[in-house]
Write the structure tokens for this entry.
Amino acid sequence: MSTIAPVTPERRRQILRVLFVSLLLDLISFTFILPLFPKLLEFYRNVEAEQGASNSLLSRTLLGLNAYKNAFARPINDRYDIVLLGGAMGSLFSFLQAVASPVIGRLSDRHGRRTALLWSMAGNLLSVALWVVAVDFRTFVASRVVGGLSEGNIQLATSIATDISDEKSRGSTMALIGVCFSIAFTFGPALGATLASVNSIAANPFATAAGFSLFLIVVETIYLYRYLPETLPSMSESASSARGNGKQTKATAPASSHVRANSHLLLNLTHLLFILFFSGMEFSFPFMTYDLFSYGASQSGRLLGFIGLIATILEGSLTRRLPSLRMVQLGVTSCAVSFFLLGRMQSEGMLYLAAALLAVTNATVVTGLKSLSSLEAGPNERGEKLGNHRSWGM
């Protein structure tokens, strides 16, 4: 039986450093838009109202949302239009990611992690470039569609981290990815809100934030192209063999004797049930505070930064030391208590207490589930299995 040579500690540290820097750039860029969504959608609605556009994509979307509102016995107030529109945009992005994630995973198993990641970055570049020039709602939707179909950075980073770690270090390696999330959510939303206050293009007041987001994606792409090696076990092993023999050899997948302790279906269903409730709350958070407390972009950015800061502290200390299953149990319990508080929220103090508990959930559940899922995948099926796992959680 063919076996895969273990990754040396020096090479592992080098790849983890590249992953950390690239993910940080990617996620900071990604989180720029989160506190801007309510005002951004309000801007496009106002633009079309001034133009008197009656058959535009936005007007047809709002017409559909109004039909949805009227289907309820108790009519929904028009002031929730932006909230519903934001939910529809979030659902579109997540649906496209669910469709694309398994495909990106299979491509990375076949052609290599590095190749798949660079193609994903090309899609991200196009997506953010469209946002920069999005002076109308149609172009903004195109930006989100391209972004949803091409966003494979997180799942591919997870596959790469799995490639270079053994079972003992898997949890701490996944926690490092979680740290990137937490740091990005600490600084990204606040930075995005600050940049949105700089009006460089009258036709698109969010162009400054979008432009800086594009700059970060360009830097990330160049950095990955220069410094990220291939980690897919069959391809990296083949490359090492070719260097040693002085000739190119064809990559072959090693035989696998991987023993599974858990069902991928069970882990995927758990991911689906959790994300079904949690992601809806997470995405609608800025809209909820916008409606209940009249939060603007800067206040939403501070709240998301608070969540990110707590999650960063937990990821760097507690989470990386916990067994994967215990991470999931802790996070789900914290999430349930947070939802209970949010349902009875009457003050900003209670809002921040619930947000702190959501930070615990952010730091634990998805990291733990990804770690468990990666342990159930063989070396040359990780891209597909982790892609499927991510797809179930979209």
The first helix runs from residue 9 to 31. DSSP finds 15 helices and no strands in the chain. Residues 27 and 181 are 7 Å apart (CA to CA). The two ends are 37 Å apart (CA to CA).
